Amino acid sequence: MNDLSPSAAVDVGSLWLDLGFHPFAKPIRAPNTEAGIETILAALRERGAGQVAIEAIGGYARKLAMALIEAEVKVFLSIRGASRRFAAPRA
Predict the structure, then answer these.
(1) Do the beta carbons of residue 6 and residue 48 sit within 8 Å?
(2) Strand 51-56 vs strand 7-12: parallel, antiparallel, or unpaired?
(3) pLDDT for the residue numbered 73
(4) Cα–Cα distance, 22 to 27 (Å, whole number)
(5) Quick one: which of 8, 25, 42, 86 is 20 to 30 A from 17 by CA?
(6) Which CATH architecture has domain 7-87?
(7) Cα(56)–Cα(84) distance, integer angstroms
């Protein structure tokens, strides 16, 4: 069965969490802190997003991923650069 709930993606950096939604909504930037994670969780709840893709860099996404899992949000991790390497032409 297809999940028709809104989806979201978070670009995780050392200082910031940049949250975007599909279908489109205004993006949200929050600090990569406990308070910022709460802001992200509240925005996801408000929009009913049941799944989130995270582009993680180093260990900066660990706390966010754990908070999302505890909130019973489906989490998909994307390793930075992997998508570009996959899409690159092959010889």
Answers:
(1) yes
(2) parallel
(3) 93
(4) 10
(5) 86
(6) 2-Layer Sandwich (3.30)
(7) 14
